[in-house]
């Protein structure tokens, strides 16, 4: 094979020219197909307090409306409490939908935001450590926090807070990483 840069006759099958160092052929990359392993969202238990507060406000709104029928003017207060309860529920739903994590065969992807979006990715081969922490309250509700540290930078962390079954998620990441490195 002749070098396209210097014209030197190179040894058959050589990747680089022995005279000038030019690559003689471009190896075709191995085709890998990435597939999803898991999609993770914040647990519903995170929003339990919001739903309880909305329920209490809804009951108070019903009581204010019932007081109106008894001759008192509770309609504006009842309507305001009902709207506030609905806003709290909608806020909790939007908050839950605004963050998610995906584990694929190649990467761990974090997506944040509802109107504006932020996306952070860590290659599975670049994962340095996976840490699982569970406070007492998280243990009572079966949730926890998984922190994935990248080998690329000490500051680069993906923190999956208040997720259901954190030990299984950490094990999925570990197995996917080992399979990726093999």
What's the end-to-end separation, in Å?
A: 34 Å
What pattern of helices and strands is seen along the backbone? EHHEEEEHEEH
Total individual domains: 3
Which strand-content bin applies to the residues? 25-35%
The total of beta strands comes to 7
Q: How many whole angstroms does the radius of gyration measure?
A: 28 Å
Q: Residue share in helices?
A: 25-40%
Looking at the structure, what is the overall shape? Answer: elongated
The secondary structure category is: alpha+beta
Tell me the strand order in the biggest sheet.
Answer: 1-2-3-4
Structural description of this entry:
The protein is of the alpha+beta class. The chain is built from four helices and seven strands, in the order βααββββαββα. β3 and β4 (118-123) form a beta hairpin. The model has no long low-confidence stretch (mean pLDDT 87).
Per-chain topology:
Layout: E1 36-41, H1 48-69, H2 75-97, E2 99-104, E3 107-112, E4 118-123, E5 127-133, H3 136-141, E6 143-150, E7 157-164, H4 166-181
Antiparallel strand pairs: 1-2, 2-3, 3-4, 5-6, 6-7
Helix pairs in contact: 1-2
Characterize this entry briefly.
It contains 4 helices and 7 strands; from the N terminus they run βααββββαββα.
């Amino acid at each position: 094979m002749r070098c396209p840069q210097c014209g030197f006759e190179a040894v058959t099958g050589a990747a680089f020219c022995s005279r000038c160092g030019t690559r003689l052929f471009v190896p075709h990359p191995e085709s890998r197909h990435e597939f999803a392993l898991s999609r993770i969202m914040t647990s519903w238990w995170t929003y339990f307090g919001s739903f309880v507060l909305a329920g209490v406000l809804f009951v108070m709104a019903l009581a204010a409306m019932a007081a109106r029928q008894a001759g008192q003017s509770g309609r504006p207060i009842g309507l305001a409490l009902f709207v506030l309860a609905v806003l709290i529920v909608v806020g909790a739903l939007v908050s839950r939908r605004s963050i998610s994590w995906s584990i694929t065969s190649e990467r761990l992807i974090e997506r944040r935001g509802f109107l504006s979006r932020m996306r952070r990715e860590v290659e599975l081969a670049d994962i340095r450590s996976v840490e699982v922490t569970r406070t007492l309250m998280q243990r009572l509700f079966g949730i926890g926090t998984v922190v994935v540290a990248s080998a690329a930078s000490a500051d680069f962390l993906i923190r999956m807070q208040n997720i259901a079954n954190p030990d299984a998620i950490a094990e999925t990441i570990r197995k996917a990483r080992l399979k990726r490195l093999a």
